[in-house]
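Q: My labmate handed me this sequence with no annotations at all. I'd like to see what the chain might look like in three dimensions before we decide whether it's worth expressing. Could you predict it?
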Amino acid sequence: MPTRTVLVVSSGDEVYRRYCLEQVAAAYRIVLVSGTPPTWQDQLVADWEAADMSDPDAVVTAGRALAARHDVAGVLTWDEYQLVPTARLARLLGLPGSDPDAMRACRDKGRTRALLHEHGVGSAASIPTSSMMEALLAAESIGYPVVLKPASNAGSLGVLRVDDSTELPDAYAFAQAGTQGVGSESDEVLVEEYLDGPEVSVECVTHRGITAAVAVTRKTVGFDPFFEEIAHAVDARDPLLAETAPVATAAVRALGISTGIQHVELRLTDRGPRIIEVNGRIGGDLIGRLVLLATGLDLPRIAADLACGIAPDLTPTRSEAATIRLLYPDTAGTIVRRSIDASFVQATDWVKEVRWLREAGDRAVLPPIGDVDTARIGHLLITAPSADIAQQRITLALDHVAIEVDPRTEPERPTSPAR
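A: Here is what I predict for the chain of 419 residues:
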């Protein structure tokens, strides 16, 4: 049985974060700060403390209460919105962790841009704005197309491309709406240079100020002009890792991050890799599982090791490929049917997970009205010996998926969000 205790701030949702809690629980005893009583987490945690997760001070207070009851060796989170409270808590408890200001720099995209510019790291021109008129002037200064985004938030909420000035008023209202609610610490809207090119993320591990890039994730983005991520692919032998690692690790260093896992998003432009943003946590959409399946590196376990000040072993034990395809309907309406050929799945050993998030009778809602929490119907996760074969396999698997939506009918029952 694990003897060392780590304090996890927010387990996240079951669909996309259960694997993180399970992999940490295999090596550590877990105590949890949570907004609601544990349900699926119950068998994985030894104790928990309730907190209003939208109140950073309440989160820190709950964490200190757990630390008073347990000998906590480390504090960690994979929840984007809890990065700063977790860093504050680690500092108050005298445990390893990045400076809270570094996590604030991750959360504040305007501050990120300023630090990247200061340290000469390739990024995008960016101007913070507080009104539609300021945004219009900023867009004219940068030149169309531009991207509008909330200065803080996550999951591409409120982010879209604007191709000319006639689109800007509606786009500004959309982006400004993304500055509201939980997880947004700023009401500013950034107007940024549009970075044209394929999108990737570099998964990084930082220990005592030294950062290693351990995997690169190729992304598929859909629902133009919005930036909805619909697929991710990790190949242990991807040559892009060598090209993107120097820029990603320089970005981590520029923000002053000293420990933890980072999910660094970039675009591959004709001027080279350019940073989109630096996230001080494990990537979402099961990217950590893809990394494990492709390389053997267990990012949640590594995150717990780092939180306890333990140098991680970053030696890959696999050399394969893994990909996830997030399933969306072709049209909005009521789901009539969603299925995958069971005989096909049973005949393969490479379809690792089929997960449905919506049932027949639920409403299908497309971006931008629907977001990552409400638009997805499910996902497929597959493995392969190489990236090319992974692409062939996911294409084959999609041929066995059926999603039927009736755009004329009303839903028979309310939709239940996946997270």
